[in-house]
Amino acid sequence: MGTTAYGDWIRDFEAARDARAERGDPEWRIGVPLHPAIRRSVQRFQVGEDGDGAELITKAEAAGDAEYASAVRMFVAEERNHARLLALLLASGGAPVIASHWSDRVFVTLRRALGLRLELLVLMIAEVVALRYYRALRDGADDALTREVAGRILADEERHVPFHCHRLHRALRPLPPPVRVLVTSGWRAALAAVALVVAVDHGPALRRLGVGRGRFVAEVVRSSGPVAATMR
């Protein structure tokens, strides 16, 4: 991707949007018997995907880069689509969405209180945790519909992390190298703490998916090393 503009990222988001339109939705009518632990876990992640992204879009527009703001709007649209897919997956299993969850309220409060750079660092914690979660859901779910939905979301998240890394690399570049190391080290420590909380909160589902709590945390922390290096 380009180092000074976001035209390549816009084309990437547009290509993904066109591919989704051509592919269409999964076959919801087949239904899915969601295990109670998986149902509760998906409900919590659905809440996290269901924000309107208005604060992030406003901060991106205020940054003064029209291409970046356009790319952020496309990112937000993909996150909203994730919430839609998860809501329809729950509906296919006869389960409702939930109005809120404490973990999402904490993340939203933190992100809204911060500037763009720090908001992206908080957002990246959620994105990296989501990578491991959706991979576990794709690989460990009992039914094909859940695996397909998780695989679709995972493919998007695998593009989102480099997109945000690209912006954070540019945002951190003016800082002295020791400060960049301090920021990314602190980010990794915060990510490890959040991964531990998620592992406890979603422990029954992770066990059902064949991923223990300890393994989940260890793999999230291990994956954060290359991400932090890219940000630096």
Number of helices: 10
Indicate the mean pLDDT. Answer: 90
Low-confidence stretches: none
Distance between the termini: 17 Å
- Structural category: mainly alpha
> How large a portion of the residues is in β-strands, by DSSP E?
under 5%
Number of strands: 0
Helix content, binned percent: over 70%
Would you kindly provide a written description of the structure presented here, covering whatever features stand out?
The structure is a single chain. This protein starts with 6 loop residues before the first helix and ends with a helix. The protein is globular and about 50 Å long. The mean pLDDT is 90. Helix 5 (102-112) runs antiparallel to helix 6 (116-140). The chain contains ten helices and no strands. The chain is 78% helix and 0% strand. The chain is mostly helical and 232 residues long.
